[in-house]
Write a structure and sequence with these properties.
mainly alpha
């Protein structure tokens, strides 16, 4: 059901408002080795469900513990849940991660790199989109109405052509037609057909019809229409159904109308309509997307629990997503354990949520452990499960493991989709000498009948960019547009990076203008790539234009901006402009960092202006902006050699001044005449003459 669907994984940084609890806890250890039970010290209460985010590891003195116990808030929902747990020791494998040495975690993993902008992965089971073939002929009245909806004349609505069907269609047929049109994506046809149903006598609108229409309108971004239809529903008992309100709340959440979703929920409470587990899961999702903390979501869940709402896997999945988005992975594992004790078994969505949280925090071994536990419990992995693991190994640039996962995926009866192949292309493309393998993976995807997306082409263009094949990158971009795939900002950024590396400023300008004509606003990464591309080729005016244009859309210059400009001016022999750029930084309240000072020092060393180099080194030390040890050691070795040479010259000059003042210098010989070269020669000739 569309109402039970959880949202795709994104990574918003929600504010964390967990306060440090005033009671002891038992840490859950998540590691790549088999978990072991952590001994719990004897106490009057068991360990709480929530671990504090910034809990200090030091033991607390006994008198402080007693004082904290007195300060406990009895209304704290976290503490309330803690006290409701059974006073038994934690189970031996509560951490869920009984990792054994497997074929992947035992490999030597490469160092993680900064992931580029990639497509996010659905953690729920990927449902096949049922799209009916337009040539399919359906029997009966439903087939006739669907035929009219598919072949609607211009400047006409579906309600205008349904006159012959008055009296021939019942509620069941209307629901069937709505279901078929929703599956085909005929949004406006659904809306006009629903209006036609409402105008019939008696009305053919039912609660089930609303449950079908509202989520589709929400996915189409038509929140106003949902609110109008909901207000105009008859005030009868039939429409005071929890499914109608769930559908409207879910649709408003889909189009980002979170305030309206809360209004519908409050109206639901005023009308004494009892919420169910679907309502709870949808509202927890609304709270997460609206920026509420995991603690707020837990309080809402406790309130719903007091109203008699049953615990379900949908509620579990929504809660775990809220906790995982805030980085509270251990707490999410405890919630999963507690719900399993209450008989709520974890499904694939729950495991996908946990695996995605661990993989995105670069804990791939723990994600592999959850994958193994999932299969051991008989939960069948989905395509999203494999895609989460592939994405993690793609960021680690380990394409061989992704190849193994693709084979395992096919052996389990799942066909790799476009996200699977995109992970493989990206894994090859992140490595400099593997661009041909990335291109082969792209061709394998097309040969398998999988249609590429903008993310697939972006990964391929980035692969060409890394290897310096800017012409192939542009060719891939043209193929993408020829296939009708709209380039994203990530695509344009990867293409700009390819020509930045090639130093082709003319194509840089062309791509930039093309991006603006497509009304795609750049990001900070796009800004930096354009700036660096122009500045390094000596096009300083164009680089300044980039700073001005991006400033108009809110991207003001940063320290990195000025570092790139300084580097470009220094490489171009314009070292005299560096102090001016430094003053500009100061006027914008931008404090120079270690890269700023290092760039200036190396620039002046390159032109043998050691006086300024030593001056800015002194400024760098004074401001405390020292680079890392390896970079600073290299810088100091250069400066020490120059300082030793300078000291020797200074010492010689000072000794000369002292000796001159004390009269210890030998008098200089007079000026040599023009015959000085022949003096020795003449003496020799005279001596030979005397001897003869």
């Amino acid at each position: 059901m569309a109402l039970m669907m959880h949202q795709t994984f994104s990574s918003p940084s929600c504010p964390l408002f967990f306060h440090k609890p005033h009671f002891s806890k038992t840490l859950i250890r998540v590691s790549a080795t088999p978990s072991r039970s952590v001994p719990t010290p004897p106490s009057h209460s068991s360990s709480p469900i929530f671990l504090p985010f910034l809990q200090e590891q030091e033991t607390t003195p006994q008198h402080q513990v007693q004082q904290k116990e007195e300060d406990e808030d009895p209304n704290d929902p976290i503490l309330r849940f803690f006290k409701s747990r059974t006073s038994t020791q934690d189970p031996r494998f509560e951490s869920k991660l009984s990792l054994q040495k497997n074929r992947r975690t035992s490999w030597r993993l490469a160092s993680a790199t900064d992931p580029e902008s990639e497509a996010e992965f659905d953690v729920e089971e990927e449902k096949e989109q049922v799209v009916l073939d337009p040539s399919t002929s359906l029997q009966g009245v439903s087939g006739e109405i669907l035929h009219f909806a598919r072949n609607l004349p211009e400047n006409s609505t579906l309600g205008e052509v349904l006159g012959p069907f008055v009296g021939r269609v019942g509620e069941r047929e209307c629901v069937e037609v709505l279901d078929l049109m929703c599956k085909e994506g005929l949004v406006m046809a659904c809306l006009y057909f629903f209006e036609w149903m409402r105008l019939q006598e008696p009305s053919l609108v039912t609660a089930q019809a609303c449950s079908l229409l509202f989520p589709m309108l929400g996915r189409a971004g038509m929140g106003d229409e949902v609110m109008i239809l909901l207000r105009n529903l008859p005030k009868t008992r039939q429409f005071r159904d929890v499914r109608v309100y769930n559908a409207s709340i879910s649709s408003l959440s889909s189009c980002g109308r979170y305030d309206d979703a809360w209004k519908v929920y409050e109206e639901m409470e005023r009308n004494n309509i009892h919420p169910d587990h679907v309502t709870c899961s949808i509202m927890v999702t609304v709270m997460r997307k609206d920026g509420h903390s995991a603690k707020d979501a837990w309080e809402f869940f406790q309130r719903m629990n007091r109203k008699g709402v049953e615990w379900s896997s949908e509620v579990l999945g929504a809660l775990l997503k809220s906790f995982c988005d805030e980085g509270l992975k251990k707490e999410a594992l405890i919630i999963q354990s507690e719900m399993e004790k209450k008989g709520i078994s974890s499904n694939a969505i729950v495991y996908n949520t946990l695996m995605d949280a661990y993989s995105k925090s670069n804990h791939v071994e723990e994600a592999e452990g959850l994958f193994g536990e999932m299969k051991a419990k008989g939960v069948k992995p989905t395509s999203a499960t494999y895609n989460i693991l592939m994405d993690a190994y793609s960021r680690r640039m380990q394409p061989r493991i992704i190849e193994d996962l693709l084979l395992e995926m096919q052996e389990s009866g799942l066909e790799p989709n476009v996200k699977s192949y995109t992970c493989l292309i990206s894994a090859y493309g992140r490595q400099k000498k593997m661009s041909e393998m990335a291109a082969n993976a792209f061709l394998r995807m097309k040969k398998a009948g999988v249609r590429p997306t903008s993310h697939s082409y972006t990964a391929l263009i980035h692969a060409y960019s890394i290897s310096g094949w800017h012409e192939k990158a542009y060719s891939a971009f043209e193929n993408m547009k020829r296939e009708g795939i709209k380039p994203s900002i990530e695509t344009y950024t990867a293409l700009l990076d390819a020509f930045r590396r090639a130093g082709d400023t003319q194509i840089l300008v062309k791509i930039w203008k093309l991006m603006l004509s497509d009304k795609i606003e750049g990001t900070r990464v796009t800004f930096n790539i354009l700036l660096d591309g122009f500045a390094k080729q000596g096009h300083y005016m164009e680089a300044r234009d980039v700073v001005f244009e991006f400033g108009k859309i809110g991207f003001q210059p940063t320290v990195m901006t000025y570092n790139m400009l300084m580097n470009a001016y220094a490489r171009g022999g314009q070292h005299s402009r560096l102090p001016q750029l430094l003053k500009e930084m100061m006027s914008l309240n931008l404090n120079p960092d270690s890269i700023t000072y290092s760039t200036m020092i190396y620039a002046y060393v390159r032109v043998r202006d050691f006086k300024r180099a030593f001056f800015y080194h002194k400024q760098m030390v004074k401001s405390g902006q020292i680079p890392d040890s390896q970079s600073y050691q290299k810088l100091r070795s250069i400066l020490d050699v120059k300082a030793a040479t300078k000291n020797r010259r200074d010492k010689s000059a000072i000794l000369g001044i002292i000796n001159s003042n004390m009269g210890l210098l030998k008098p200089k010989k007079g000026k040599k005449d023009e015959f000085w070269k022949n003096k020795k020669k003449k003496k020799r000739i005279q001596s030979f003459a005397q001897d003869g």
